[in-house]
Amino acid sequence: xxxxxxxxxxxxxxxxxxxxxxxxxxxxxxxxxxxxxxxxxxxxxxxxxxxxxxxxxxxxxxxxxxxxxxxxxxxxxxxxxxxxxxxxxxxxxxxxxxxxxxxxxxxxxxxxxxxxxxxxxxxxxxxxxxxxxxxxxxxxxxxxxxxxxxxxxxxxxxxxxxxxxxxxxxxxxxxxxxxxxxxxxxxxxxxxxxxxxxxxxxx
Length: 203
What we know:
single chain
């Protein structure tokens, strides 16, 4: 028994030593999606809205900050990430947009099981920066669907596509451009949903 202990002790010490030389994970900067959207003044609507995370590709359904450097190659910025996966970022940005707008006050998300008159979801086709020659743009493309909550019938659908030029290729500038593109998308989506919702209620 004593000899077995004498053999095991050096092995255990060697394993502990090996743990100390394992490579450490690279530190990464975590970014929120910035917003500078102003509030809108309008008459409140009577109906409720539930916002769901849009479906997307496996690559975009992650905290990676996606970039298309050329052609069909999609990659991500090293040592930088979003605070949440892209579909969550976009859903939360839209929620913030509706709250700032102020017309749709009865809001919820798919994190809860609350019933709503309408549900906004869809497919997130692009959420990335793209190199076009020497220029860099941020691209957000959303195929939005507005669904009636009572029977899950699609009452309207529309593709939204926003491009925003990036001032330089550094990650903070890319993140700032994502924020500007998100503000543009918010204004378009909020206005469209309010028009569709009010039009359906009147019918």
